[in-house]
Amino acid sequence: MTASPWEPDMPEPLLEIDQVSVEYHRGRRTPPLRAVDNVTLSVAPGETLAIVGESGSGKSTLGNAVLGLAPVLGGAIRFRGRDITHADHRERRALSRHIQVVFQDPYGSLNPVRTIGQTLAEPFLVHRNLDSAAARAEVTAMLRRVGLPADAADRYPAKFSGGQRQRIAIARALMLSPQLIICDEAVSALDLSVQAQILNLLSDLQREFGLSYLFISHDLDVVRHISHRVAVLLHGRLVEQGPTAVVTTDPTHPYTQALLAAVPVPDPQEQLRRRTRRNLEKRPRPGESSGRSGGCPFSGRCMHTMEICITETPPPSNVSSGGMVACHLHAGHVLLETPTQQAV
Ligand SMILES: Nc1ncnc2c1ncn2[C@@H]1O[C@H](COP(=O)(O)OP(=O)(O)OP(=O)(O)O)[C@@H](O)[C@H]1O
User: Does any domain span residue 293?
Assistant: First the structure.
């Protein structure tokens, strides 16, 4: 793997995303959209890596690239050391035993005319050639494991609440004992109390089965409870990465600070303090932060913007907390006395 200051030393990553870029083509008259730009990340066995950022920052695209569902322009994605970037249909089918996904809206991905039992048994019948009685026993055990009654197997998706449907989606993801689950906004549509239950379930399952999660969320507060490390995307670029305790309480990049300021907290004084520090009111469209291909993607909204932020892409640098940041403020450049732009 290409040496990168973004990556702490980790023995044998399960998943490596190595300088990956993804571009969507939008017709002949519109330039392609660089949804993910030269991102390098890895996930260790048993680890949860959270990917956070605003809507449109490229989080789902990155997850989809791992799943083979997004057009990877450059770089490599490796799973257990094997390059899967452009895996063909047959290889993808084999990989689906090891890499599974849980989406935000399980209702959309659960077949409404199949019982839960039929849906959950399907991977067994396809991949493991189990007879239906053996598959049924596995389904019952899995339903119990995710906190649903055994008779859930005979019911249809419409009979379940949002939280129960998410348990079903998790059960389906687990049926073939995968090593990596991509959770794409998996708890975003749920009430806070149900969110907490599902996050606890995911943590328990991780401990029990040694699972790794790539946990995609727009909500820094949610990832605080589940992830070991957090990576922050902005307009497809990785701007900060580090241990969860640091990134979610004392981040280095002005963009992450602004994301944190936007998280509601119970203490009004604390909220005011955070909001006064940074905010995220001006939102240029993805890929249009400064109207240039270079420069920092946050330069149009950052209260510390310097000339160099507009013209040069900040290089990744190590920060003392063990994380990394891509910000000219932390790359040996001093802050100008009069910032060129103020966050509003
Ligand atoms: N299939 C596609 N074709 C063209 N553009 C796409 C496609 N999927 C995503 N995009 C664009 O790529 C950019 C990144 O989208 P993506 O969904 O990855 O972001 P995100 O951070 O997951 O945001 P959200 O949480 O809103 O889904 C956006 O500008 C989006 O409009």
Answer: no
Phi, then psi, of 136 in degrees rounded to 5: -60, -40
Are β-strands 316-318 and 82-83 bridged in parallel, bridged antiparallel, or unpaired? unpaired
Tell whether 289 is covered by a domain: no
Range of the domain at 26: 15-250
Ramachandran area for residue 210 (φ above 0: left; ψ -120 to 50: alpha; else beta): left
- At 27 the pLDDT is 87
Structural domains counted in the chain: 1
Kindly give the number of the ligand 1 atom that is closest to the alpha carbon of 54.
21
Residue type, 65: A
ipTM score of complex: 0.98
Residue 322 pLDDT? 84
Instruction: State what percent of residues in the chain have pLDDT above 70.
Output: 84
- Decide whether any atom of ligand 1 lies within 6 Å of the 64 Cβ: no
Cα separation, 331 vs 341, in Å, equals 20
Count CB-CB contacts under 10 A for residue 282.
Answer: 10
- Residue 23: what pLDDT? 96
CA neighbor of 324 nearest in space, from 315, 332, 333, 312: 315
CA distance 255 to 265: 18
Task: Give residue 285's identity as a one-letter amino acid code.
Answer: R
What is the DSSP code string of 179-242? SEEEEESTTTTS-HHHHHHHHHHHHHHHHHHT-EEEEEES-HHHHHTT-SEEEEEETTEEEEEE
Q: Which atom of ligand 1 is least distant from the CA of 58?
A: 18
pTM: 0.87
Within a domain: residue 131? yes
Residue 276 domain-assigned (yes or no): no
Q: In this structure, what CATH number is given to the domain that contains residue 84?
A: 3.40.50.300
Q: What token pair was written down for 247?
A: 């990134």
Q: For ligand 1, say whether the CB of 104 is within 6 Å of any of its atoms.
A: no
CA of 282 to the centre of ligand 1 (A): 19
What is the reported pLDDT for 235?
A: 95
